[in-house]
Amino acid sequence: MWLLNTPQCTPQRFGVFQPDEVLYEFDVPMIFTFMGEDGLFLAYLCAEDNDTQTVRYLIVPANKKLIDELKTGSKTVFEALNQPWLWVVDVSYEGVINAAWQVDDIAQIPDTAKPTKDAMLWPELMPFFSYRLIGDGLEKGRVPASVVARAIDGTTVAIKRLMLAVSATAVAQGRPEKWLKQLCDLPTQGFAYNSFEVSFRSGVDPTQSDITGLDLDPYSEGQTKLTSALQWLTDELDTEIDLIMLEVLASLVPPSHGIVREVEIKGHLLGNAVVRLKRIHTAKVRKAISSAKRESPILSTEGSIGEFDKDKFSFILRQRPDNELELNCLFSEENIYDDVSYAFFSETPVKVVGRLLPNRSNTFEVIAIEIVTSEIN
């Protein structure tokens, strides 16, 4: 228990203080709703004193919308409690309210007595992936648009490149149409001005899928690759990282200059680990990419697109010069998609620029494409 310096208020508005709906329970109800004289309230158990047999709660007004947001993970427990109307209430083990105080701001509550800012109602509601940019001056109302764009684009590009790194395995496992595209297009779960943070849900809810015979965790291989790459980056693992995974890391590390000094990533995709990346990691990634590109130089070739899988972001390049073997081409950038689609349906030759992927026979990562137009005499 901690001492409160605010005046006490009448506890009458809280009624008999009996749980209406228990939202989280551990031996006793920890988070629950109850009906008071003024309507519905949300209670959070924040402290307990065995000597005086008293339990202390944080209490805020509640409604169906707030409770639904908690249950779906659209709002954290901290966000639910961070309201203009906030009370601290002491209740005896018999359920009798001994004292109540109104608190002006949740900042007056000790950190040990309130949930962390990212804590969800239930563990399974924790974001699939969260990307937090940290720097001086990043607070609500002052976050530059470039920082917001980097948070979203960095995650989007990293997930696309990650799924590209495992796409050959995914295709071999018989992934259905649109499956990989759904995995890459993560829906946003929420934004937080904790510096600046954006959280994403998984692109697919396998429990709602009518597709049978598939791994219920389609990100499992990507999680393994990303975990290994991050361990290499933070010097916890001495191994070699291929170019695609280096580019995944390049999308996640902080910029080498500007307001963002470091980033924090976490979520189910990382096995709920929390990883901090700083500018020293940015330098390490860039150095490794430069070395890898020297070993895997940029190549250019021409041909016609014989097959195009619009959902798996891949195509087969045929009719290459000098009867060279066809190439299995993969791409992750949206701006390439339209040119590939046009060339396929119009049967127009193309010139592609990219790299052969290491340890992947005849597989080509496309970084640019150009429509080849014949001159009219």
Care to describe what's here?
This protein is 27% helix and 30% strand. With 377 residues, the chain is of the alpha+beta class. The protein folds into three domains: 11-121, no CATH class; 129-295, no CATH class; 299-371, Beta Barrel (OB fold (Dihydrolipoamide Acetyltransferase, E2P)), CATH 2.40.50. The protein has a six-stranded antiparallel beta sheet, with no helix packed on it. Strands 8-9-7-10-11 form a five-stranded antiparallel beta sheet. Strands 12-13-14-16-15 form a five-stranded mixed β-barrel. Strand 12 and strand 13 (314-318) form a beta hairpin. Helix 3 (145-172) crosses helix 5, helix 5 packs across helix 6 and helix 6 packs antiparallel against helix 7. It is elongated. The chain starts with 18 loop residues before the first strand and ends in a 6-residue tail after the last strand. Mean pLDDT is 85; it is low at 169-177 and 206-216.
